[in-house]
UniProtKB/TrEMBL annotation:
Catalyses which reaction(s): (6S)-5-formyl-5,6,7,8-tetrahydrofolate + ATP = (6R)-5,10-methenyltetrahydrofolate + ADP + phosphate
NCBIfam families, per database record: MTHFS_bact (TIGR02727)
Requisite cofactors: Mg(2+)
This protein's name: 5-formyltetrahydrofolate cyclo-ligase
SUPFAM superfamilies the UniProt entry points to: NagB/RpiA/CoA transferase-like (SSF100950)
Keyword Acyltransferase: no
Enzyme class: ligase
GO MF, one example: 5-formyltetrahydrofolate cyclo-ligase activity
Organism: Shewanella marisflavi
EC number: 6.3.3.2
Protein family per UniProt: Belongs to the 5-formyltetrahydrofolate cyclo-ligase family.
Length: 215
């Protein structure tokens, strides 16, 4: 049986080096460029949302130099798309719950210093009922491999997306977060599509299947 979310020491070192380098690069982007990139990426991603006729979309609030999601959120609201934010599961460690996000929603800061919705089951949606989930990431490569912060939250959430065809995951990142190749583990879930301010990376389905089979 494969170990669950226990990276080898060598890969852990490689991953941390990549995380440090890429996070520094995105933090160094000037504020005016950050604003421009956010609008460019939002326009690209909205085309995909429309093509997929997505009505229920989960994403995240920006921190640490990430590509700003606020222009995207506002456009989704304007287009009548229901937006959801993740919240750390209060009882199941390492898992996420998703709650509807409105301009009037009350947010709380969690133990990771990330803003999240309050626990209100009337506003909750199951992951399999989401049409699209826009995932944060630290780095990505041409094979669709995604490196997060190491908690495995989104890998757990997306473990069955190919079998169920939902929620369709889309990565969202600055161009400077793209690297030649990422060290991977068996639990890593590759993404079929990644949007940046200047490009949309489509990963062939056969590559996703191959990646999934070796993990």
């Amino acid at each position: 049986m494969k170990p669950a979310f226990t990276p080898s020491a060598a890969k852990q070192i490689d991953r941390q080096a990549i995380r440090d380098k890429v996070r520094s690069a995105r933090r160094a982007i000037p504020a005016d460029a950050q604003k421009r990139f956010a609008h460019e990426a939002a326009a690209r991603l909205m085309e995909i949302i429309r093509q997929r006729q997505a009505k229920h979309v989960a994403l995240y609030l920006t921190s640490d130099g990430e590509l700003d999601t606020q222009p995207l959120i506002e456009t989704l609201w304007q287009q009548g798309v229901t937006v959801y934010l993740p919240r750390l599961h209060p009882f199941s460690k390492g898992n996420l719950l998703f709650f509807r996000y409105l301009p009037t929603s009350h947010l709380l800061q969690n133990r990771l210093k990330i803003w999240e919705p309050k626990l209100d089951i009337t506003e909750m949606i199951l992951p399999q009922d989401l049409d699209v989930i826009i995932t944060p990431l630290v780095a990505f490569d041409e094979q669709g491999n995604r490196m997060g912060m190491g908690g495995g939250y989104y890998d757990r959430c997306l473990s069955d997306w190919q079998r169920n065809a939902k929620p369709y995951p889309i990565g969202y990142a600055h161009d400077c977060q793209r690297v030649e190749s990422l060290p991977t583990e068996h639990w890593d879930i590759p993404l079929p599509l990644i949007v940046t301010p200047s490009n949309i990376l489509f990963v062939p389905e056969e590559s996703l299947t191959a990646n999934t089979n070796v993990r």
